Sequence to fold (732 residues):
Amino acid sequence: MRDLITFDEENKVFHLHNKDISYLMSIEDGKTLSHLYFGKRVNGYHNQLRYPRVDRGFSGNLPGSLDRTFSRDSLPKEYSTSGEMDYRTPSAIVRNPDGSNALFLKYQDYSIANGKPDLKNLPHSWVKDDNEAQTLTIKLVDEVSKLEFDLLYTIYRDYPIIARSVLVKNNGDDSIYLEKASSMQVDFVDRDFETITLPGAHANERHMQRQRINQGVHVYGSRRGASSHQMNPFIALVDKDTDEFQGDAYGFAFVYSGNHAIEVEKDQFNQTRLNIGINDYNFNWKLEKGAEFQTPEVIMTYSSKGLNKMSQNFHKLIHDRIIRSKYKDQVRPILVNNWEATYFDFNEEKLKPIVDDAKKLGIEMFVLDDGWFGHRDDDNSSLGDWKVFKKKFPNGLGHFADYVHKQGLKFGLWFEPEMISYDSDLYKNHPDYLMHVPGRKPSPSRNQYILDLGRKEVRDNIYDQMVKILDSVDIDYIKWDMNRHISDVFEHDLPSERQGESYHRYILGVYDLMNRFTINYPNILIEGCSGGGGRFDAGMAYYTPQIWASDNSDAIARLTIQYGTSLVYPQSMMTSHVSVSPNEQNGRITPFDTRGAVAMWGDLGYELDLTKMSEEDSQKVKEQVKDYKAIRQVTQYGDLYRLKNPKYGNQAAWMVVSPNQDEAVVTWVQILSYAQNYLTKTKLAGLDPKKHYKDLATGEIYGGDELMEMGIYDPVIHKDFASKMYHFKAVD
Ligand code: GLA
Fold:
């Protein structure tokens, strides 16, 4: 039954729809696939939005046509190419054997199928059964080169989400080069959008940035070989007055972890084009006769109720249909990580008391971070040598893991599988594994180098080494780190004319390696990391159900980082730790309670030396751990509502509501304290207006409608960085 996708033969209109959203396209003159509408569900369409015919100077017409009123340069399209009459940002650029970039795509055919095809070798959203989604494939063909672009659109029945990607097929007789291949394009007419993006830096990731779009091209992207701290692969297009609870919000998340480009162009007629795909910087993919190229996927959503709803749409889809790990629905363990506690200066004897204390405090997992392998006493050596450092673990790592397990804790271990140090056995034995351009000295970063992971041989070597550890030591969790960006890009096994494939092949290599662990070691919980949140993207979610959000563990800095992160990613995916004060990254002194309250936004952990804490702080950890265990099912998996944005004010507030609206946890944080401050209120959200809720701390009972419509006064606390948490439960 094709109930989610229909094709109107007469008007040549495709309509993808579910109960929330509609997406419409039409086949226009010149067999041009044109964009019609994306937004709130409409029941039908009666051709009233046929693009008006206007003679536009300097916007040419279809080849062979005398009609001056139709131009591919102004028509809203679904995919646009180099070498056609469209001067706006193209989705695809090719280099033909004759050296030209001509490519003129015409609609040829379509098919509709139940379910959703897997994207080979790439992370993607998936379906549980074929009934929950339908996929439309629209075939666009260039008649001369015989190059075919299959535009894939999957609409889910119960999620307001469309997944888009493109499969390019070379049906011609010659090789061609793909110089750009976006995963999707969409054109909007007569919209005065603002963009919301998530730029940042190391230890300062995903700061919400809102900008008006004027005529010209705006590119938000990464050329770092990773999705990056600097620009997360996400964009929202919103109206000027859209806020957390009202207004149109179109969200797009790229399910990819390498170089990306999000291009927004406002054209001469005030129309807005959005292209998302692999960044065309240093991208040049040789497509031989008969070969195919699958682009990564974009998941897109529309909310008529502002940003919170947009985020919830993403959270649900990413949690339910991108993450695969068996841990996706299990409460995540509270861990203690030794990184900020000891850095490289540890051995088994020094770690044991931390484990003992963790047990006493109710913590559930001990994570052994960087420095347990090779001869690594600092960050100058041993990456690539995944063998236990005997000096630190004279009895072997298994002995220490057993100790941790005997204390009733799980045991987690840090790896940085994509890297190599000059000072390593791996480099001595395989210098060619280090990614470099022959004849040139590669650039170090943190005195380390990248492995040429596009090569299977290199991946096999790392996999085999890691598996030896996993098979001999009882390991419950892996922290998969990546602590530099890519440079000196060159893949040893590729001929010169294919070197433009190296960036993408690198990330495909990473995916292959990660996939081996997710498939072969399904019981291991894998946490992603890249110098904190440098690869926090929807692609990684397919392999790592949780990711370390930032190396910045200061509670106040984390407010903005976590606020931004929550625009796209579910809170169960975001790990967050309580660390020492003054904070090691920015020196800020914050109260213990606030550090706990902020860390409880995500999966709570501790990153400090438990043995060096005051008795008072130890007691606080014990209480936090106990409290968190009581709320984490709700906070990790409930519906998140952002209430106050710390970027635009002196407070942050957010809350999480259980799916049955019976329970809610609200967190409020004040940044600076002021004398004679104005009184402020926080209005709650997402509760059932008809239910009554008890504040578990005070026993007071309030109506859901009162809490949402009238709100509650925020506490008056004359202390910087103060916070308060509320736990409400519905009562009969
Ligand atoms: C990165 C991570 C940290 C820690 C160090 C170890 O910076 O984000 O949490 O694991 O590496 O070198």
Summary: The mean pLDDT is 97.
